[in-house]
Amino acid sequence: RAMGSGTARWLLIGADLARPLPIATGSVDRVLCHNTLEALADPAGLLVEANRFLRPGGRAVIGHSDFDTLVFAGAELTLTRRLVHTYCDLQQPGWMDGVDGTIGRRLPALVGRSPLQVGQVHAEVLLEQAFAPGSLGFTLAKGVSAMATRSGRFTTAELERWLADLQAASARGDYLFSVNDYIVVATK
Could you give the CA distance from residue 127 to residue 21 in angstroms, rounded to a whole number? Predict the structure, then answer.
């Protein structure tokens, strides 16, 4: 968030997060980073960079889902566990320089080792009871299935059965999806 003429302005920048960002040192009041660190080869480097461009007293809100906590109730438990662990642990080509699907649970320690000062730590559980287009559980299930297909570790029949079971569980009222998100509020 940049300040100017008495009103807050949001600045969105597309940049390579493995390089210094095109932001002047000490020029930013607020930083928001969500579900980004797990895909970086050097997540600590981005926190150092955020500290660089934050003004003294500036605030960073760093959040991340812990993908190892994905719960899809209503589907075959053993298959669901295999899918979640594969999704959590497998680097996806083309956009991930690293992979750490459990970074959410270590986020407070990671931020605590950075130059930022940890203020508050929160945990939020996203919970849904309908498997429907537009819901996060539906979107993630489709992503998990697509990634599992690319991994070669699952058969097409397994994946089709899993998605069909989620849909049937939702129709019966037996479906539940949840994921834990962790949020660290830190200051410079």
Answer: 35
